[in-house]
Design brief:
Layout lengths: L2 E12 L2 E12 L3 E5 L6 H9 L6 E6 L8 H5 L1 E4 L11 H11 L5 H10 L13 H14 L4 E5 L7 H18 L2 E5 L3 H7 L2 E6 L2 E7 H7 E6 L12 E7 L4 E6 L11 E3 L2 H14 L4 E2 H8 L1
Parallel strand pairs: 3-7, 3-8, 5-6, 6-7
Antiparallel strand pairs: 1-2, 1-4, 8-9, 10-12, 10-13, 11-12, 11-14
Protein name: ABC transporter ATP-binding protein
InterPro entries: AAA+_ATPase, ABC_transporter-like_ATP-bd, P-loop_NTPase
Organism: Streptomyces galilaeus
Length: about 300
């Protein structure tokens, strides 16, 4: 299997603050990856490391088999759109395309001009006078016209209204199909990610919480509901992600690669959004987690 990104022991510190720590991750090529986590989880730091904008404090990271931003050839293989989809307010749409052609050796002018026409962007309009959705589409067009092998986005649709957000994501998926590119997309909008992503990476408190194929994660996660004594014989290889208790019942969110025992009749699969929220809550609130054995020891 070929990986578009590989991290081993990756970490980044700012003074005494540990923004990212002990990150071990492999992302297969050809995936649309949703990068999620609460504020301060380390998402922007991770993307900055992947783009070569910042250097790691420890560990290693490789993108498309090489160190990020290792040279002009490597830079040409990656398209990056930062937060707020930055464009140059005083440049026209046409000037953005000319600048892209000057700076990118793999620039596809026909693709860029076709997209500008489809979006009804006037070539002589300055970017500063465009709507938020139009600016986002212009930034996406410039990134795609590089014809990169990997597109990286840091919260590109957070400030857009639902209609503009839908248009942006639709065009993104069209570019993915045309370019056969991989995508890493950071976002708080879990519903959008659930619709378009086939691979998920969850960060929390500067650490990797879970990563994997979306379908596999859905197949491996369950919600178990029962009386407090029902879980004493829970198999020890089941990982407990989250536990909640009332006077009458216990609710567990668990991960298991094998089948759940039949006598747990109230075992249901979670959807991807619920799985992501469970891991985000685990990092934020330090819920009871671990193996079934650790759970039982904590109850004693």
């Amino acid at each position: 299997m070929t990986f578009v990104l590989e991290a081993e022991g990756l970490g980044k510190r700012y003074g005494r603050h540990e923004a990212l720590a002990d990150c071990n991750l492999q992302i297969p090529e050809g995936r649309v990856v949703g990068l999620v986590g609460p504020n301060g989880a380390g998402k922007s730091t991770f993307l900055g490391l992947a783009c070569g904008l910042i250097q790691p404090s420890e560990g290693t990271i490789k993108v498309l088999g090489h160190h990020p931003a290792a040279g002009t050839d490597q830079l040409a293989r990656v398209g990056f759109v930062a937060q707020d989809t930055p464009v140059y307010a005083n440049l026209t749409v046409a000037e953005h395309l000319r600048l892209g052609a000057e700076l990118n050796p793999r620039w596809d002018q026909k693709l860029a001009e076709r997209q500008v026409r489809q979006l009804n962007l006037k070539p002589d309009h300055k970017a500063g006078r465009l709507s938020g959705g139009q600016r986002a589409q212009l930034a996406l067009t410039i990134a795609a016209a590089k014809r990169p092998e990997l597109l990286i986005f840091d919260e590109p649709v957070a400030a857009l209204d639902p209609l503009a957000r839908r248009g942006f994501l639709q065009n993104l998926m069209e570019f993915v199909a045309e370019l056969e590119a991989s995508v890493i997309l950071s976002s708080h909008l879990l519903g959008d990610l659930e619709r378009i992503c086939d691979h998920v990476v969850v960060l929390g408190d500067g650490r990797l919480q879970v990563a994997g194929e979306a379908d596999d994660l859905v197949a491996e996660h369950y919600r178990l509901v029962g009386a407090q004594g029902d879980f004493e014989d829970l198999p020890q290889d089941i990982e407990i992600i989250q536990a909640a208790h009332t006077d009458r019942q216990t609710t567990l969110i668990v991960r298991s690669t094998g089948p759940i025992p039949h006598h747990f009749t109230e075992a249901t699969h979670l959807d991807l959004e619920d799985i992501i929220l469970a891991y985000m809550s685990r990092s934020a609130y330090a819920s009871v987690t671990g193996t079934a054995q650790q759970f039982l020891e904590a109850r004693q």
